[in-house]
Amino acid sequence: MQTPKITIEQAVLLLEQGEIVAFPTETVYGLGALASHSEAIAKIYQVKGRDPSKQLLLHAADLEAIEPFISMRPKFLDLLARAFLPGPLTLILPAHPTLPWATIGIRIPSHPIAQELLQALKEPLFATSANLSGRTSPKTAADVFYELNGAIAGIIDGGDATLGVASTILDLTRPSPFWVREGAIPKEIIRKILEAQ
Length: 197
Fold this sequence. Notes:
Elements: H1 8-16, E1 21-24, E2 29-34, H2 38-48, E3 57-59, H3 63-66, H4 77-84, E4 89-94, E5 103-107, H5 112-121, E6 125-129, H6 141-148, E7 154-155, E8 168-171, E9 178-181, H7 187-195
Parallel strand pairs: 1-7, 3-5, 4-8
Antiparallel strand pairs: 1-2, 2-6, 3-6, 4-5, 8-9
C-alpha cells in the first residue's frame, strides 16, 4: 500500500490515532508521533531502523508547549529563544523528572506547515528526520516517499525544505552553552548574541 500525500487536517487525525506522519520543517522533512503515544514513538524507531538509545527531538509550537517536558528554564533559554525561535535551532534542556532521560532536545520549527500542524494538535510531537537511519536527510516529499513508502501513514507535501541542512544544536544543561552540532544557524551569529548578554 502506497503512502498518500495528506492535508494537515488528515495528519492531525492520523497522529491522534497513533500513526506516524512526515511533515516539512525549514531544515529537512521530519517524521513525527504525538508525544503522548508511546507505541507511535516506538514505530518511528522501527520504521527508521534507528538505535533505540538515540532520543527523538521534541517539536513544539512555542516555549509554553515544552514546559511539561523540562525541569527548569536554563539561563540562556529565553535569550536564544527571542533571537532564533521559531527557527532551525535545537536546544538540549534538563528533562522533567517524569521522563526517562536526564535531558531532552527541543525544536520550535519556523516552517508554516510545521507550525500549523503543531498548533492544530495542541500537543508536541517527538520527531526525527524522515529517512532510514544512516541515509541522507530528506529535503522533499519525494525523498520521503522514496525512503518510506508504505511504512508510514502519510506525507504532508510542503515543497522543498527551505534550508536543506540540519538545525544547529546547543546544550544548555552546562554552565555555558555547549556546541553539539553546527548547522543552519552559524556559530558566529549565536556567539554574538551570547556575548552581548
